[in-house]
Amino acid sequence: MITSAIAWGYVADTRGRKAILVWGLLADVICVLCCALSQSIIQLMIAKFIGGLVMGGPFAVLMTYLMEFHNNKYRARVMMCIGIMFSMASLSMPILAYLVLPQNWDFQMWDLKYHSWQIYLAISATPSLLSGVALSFFPESPRFLMSQGRTIEALKAFRTMYALNTGKPKDTYPITKLIDELSASNDQNFEEISISTIEPVTKDPVKDVEEQLKTKDPSPFLALFQKPYLKLSINVYMLNFCILLGQNTMRLWLPQLFASLREFQELSAESMHSMCSILEYNVNKTGLVKETSETCSVIITSDSYTNNIIVAGACFVAFLLASSLINKLGHKRLQIGALMISGSCGFALYWSSTTISTLVITSLYACMGSLAATSAVGTSTVLFPTSLRTMVVCVALMFGRIGSIFGNILFPVFMSFGCIPPFLMVGGVMFMACILSALLPSTKKSDLK
């Protein structure tokens, strides 16, 4: 996903959004099924790597595609709705794992052996299949079409949206002609006109820059590393780097943390146990596993997923609340608040001494981190013009995934230094992200006016 980010961003900003979404999701179905059919680690890794190459585009394009169907009034809320859908997906996956993975499903077909985890992977291809088929009936982003001067196609897309939203015939759409943005004067704001000619025009702070970039026709990637977007781009990239470093480090550690908590409770009669004791037990057990030559016997119980389901459910509730507050607060204020809570939870985890307190703190950390990550993507789409949106989202997510890799490499290193360092890391990066978020321009509509 990291290696393909720039290529996907360039294709999406020059060729369109819909085709990447449809064909990318359908190709992902094939990759996931290849993972499910794999019979060796090498086959599984190759299929996953190709799947990452394929999904790097649709994942980023989806954000831009949905945002461009809405005007400034609804864009922030749309991002929270995307977060709600992601949290529902995060909730459904441990529930699916709860139902499938503990089953002793081992069978052979021809010379191929299959297990419950492969069935789990095969089922997880269903969302991509349904999404790819459904999106084939949707129009191309009219905002993208207008930015390319394809006004006739954009008008057809608006008519399709009008018919779907109102149930009226397409030929009753009141707008009969769109202005060609490529030849339009600089005093017009098409971010609002592309959605409705009735709404009051809002001055776009990046409009003059967008027109200048169109005139020079620079490469979308190079434009992000030139004035006037260089400083803003670096800020957005580092923001995503820090947020995903902290969020994904914690998110990927949670299943192991909960499993270690459960094992430690069974071994110890004490009801109170420090997080340092859990970390020490975790490190010692890892050392024993490395030294032994015995075959690893994996015992999966349904209880292994209960806490993860609770965390995902908490994120769903958090996004529901955020969707009702985002328009009042704006991306920036929501980000700063979520990052401060998340960073505080990262530090507070050090003092957690019970299973309940650990579950509450990790749930808050995961929820606020996910909220901040989604809001950061929304910020990226609002602060940059149409011609650069998908590219900046792709590159920002690329930096975020690099941060995820760094976090998962550094976390065990910090664990080896002692008990406090890993908590300083997961909490500290969130406060660093909070500072970066505070340096960004406001994206609240009333502030833009």
UniProtKB/TrEMBL annotation:
SUPFAM superfamilies: MFS general substrate transporter. The chain crosses the membrane at residues 20-39, 45-66, 78-99, 119-138, 234-254, 309-327, 391-414, 420-440. PROSITE patterns: MFS (PS50850). The keyword Mitochondrion does not apply. It is a multi-pass membrane protein. It is found in: Membrane. Residues 1-445 form the Major facilitator superfamily (MFS) profile domain. One of its GO terms (molecular function) is transmembrane transporter activity. GO terms for cellular component: membrane. Keywords: Membrane, Transmembrane, Transmembrane helix, Transport. InterPro entries: MFS (IPR011701), MFS_dom (IPR020846), MFS_trans_sf (IPR036259). Pfam families: MFS_1. This is Major facilitator superfamily (MFS) profile domain-containing protein. It comes from Stomoxys calcitrans (Stable fly). The gene is 106086458.
